[in-house]
Amino acid sequence: MAPYPPHMHNQRQSNSRQQSQQSEQHTVLVCDDDEAIVNALEVYLKQEGYRVLKAGTGRQALAILQQEPVQLIIMDIMMPEMDGLSATLKIRETQNIPLIMLSAKSEDTDKITGLHFGADDYVTKPFNALELMARVKSQLRRYTRLGSLPATSQMLVNGRLELDTSACELKVDGVPVRLTATEYKIVAYLMKHPGQVFSTGAIYEQVWEETSHAVENTVAVHIRRIREKIEINPKEPEYLKVVWGIGYKMEKRTRRNRGTTQ
């Protein structure tokens, strides 16, 4: 095989350095009481160019987050002092950074619980390192894109909901609502197409940027979390409606006066 021309060789080296520098800008916090798993993840993540911080308990993770800027968390569930679910709830009080939950529990109910507590993704042990790294990249890509939208972004208004896609901010009755990156993408996608019904598979592929397979529970849990943040009565939603047997839609609403929609 003929060698690359000098200019192409230099370009490939430049692209490689650029990708590495881009990854090094991201810090990943790995929280697990199994030191072998933490050390293995540290190796994989550093090979991808990420900076890695390590914690053995939920309390240690919270302490690190108060001192260090972190762009993604990999959190085990079963840990001493403070488990992963309790730590995730505490983190979600102040931060919306991507969080991947890691657990030996593989039942759907366990996955739903993790997502409901605020995780963006759920990976079961033993895990495939390549798959986990792909999920890390996907979550970071989704998260960082929220800060790089074009200046021509829209202000989407639907009844009591106002979504500023330039500032990546959702307001309900004028009050800002904290959303995770995943929740934001779901809301933005549905608000851009009010009244249109999307299957769970279509929503998953648009938001997670992965091929959908048995994703109904994953999407449903995120929809439920969004409803708890935007609906007056989450059990009788006026915005995020389910269309049984098909999927979900953002109901069209018009503001009549403050606090009243139709």
UniProtKB/TrEMBL annotation:
A Gene Ontology term for the protein's cellular component: protein-DNA complex
Gene3D superfamilies, per the entry: 3.40.50.2300, 6.10.250.690, Winged helix-like DNA-binding domain superfamily/Winged helix DNA-binding domain
GO biological process: regulation of DNA-templated transcription
Region feature (Disordered): 1-26
Entry protein name: Stage 0 sporulation protein A homolog
DNA-binding region residue numbers: 153-252
Protein purpose: May play the central regulatory role in sporulation. It may be an element of the effector pathway responsible for the activation of sporulation genes in response to nutritional stress. Spo0A may act in concert with spo0H (a sigma factor) to control the expression of some genes that are critical to the sporulation process.
Keywords attached to this entry: DNA-binding, Phosphoprotein, Transcription, Transcription regulation, Two-component regulatory system
Bias kind Low complexity: ranges: 11-23
List of residues that carry 4-aspartylphosphate: 76
Record GO terms (molecular function): phosphorelay response regulator activity; transcription cis-regulatory region binding
PROSITE patterns in alphabetical order: OMPR_PHOB, RESPONSE_REGULATORY
Residues of the Response regulatory domain: 27-140
Species the sequence originates in: Anoxynatronum buryatiense
Keyword S-adenosyl-L-methionine: no
Occurrences of domain OmpR/PhoB-type (ranges): 153-252
Pfam families per UniProt: Response_reg, Trans_reg_C
Entry annotated with the keyword Cell membrane: no
